[in-house]
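Marked as duplicate of an earlier ticket. Keeping the data here for the record.
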Amino acid sequence: MDISIEPWKKLVIHEVIEYNFEEWMTQIAFSSKTAGGGIPTINWTNGVVFQSFNFPDTNVIVEEKIKGVLHWSSVMFALKEKYDRQVIKDNATINLIDVSVNEIFRELADKLKEHSKQKSK
């Protein structure tokens, strides 16, 4: 049996939205309360918190994936240098998950930091 491991070749993000961390957490806390109080989870790696949104697996998207190209419709992110397991904001809990083990996410965090308009503030 031949086993082939073929890493993704390219990640295409069609929209990048940056937030101030505190303001984004307030928005997430409010959304969580209005949606029934579930505990949202946000990814963290290398000083960046983020959420990514995929396109549905249409024939075109699957063809791209087979070629090694991922397409994300958008990524929302904020800078947060220190990792914390949870953030409490306006009496709501937001879990952060450290996804630093994922090479794509580490590279994404570096690219988002370069893209950030908050870094100079």
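See parent ticket for discussion. The two ends are 55 Å apart (CA to CA).
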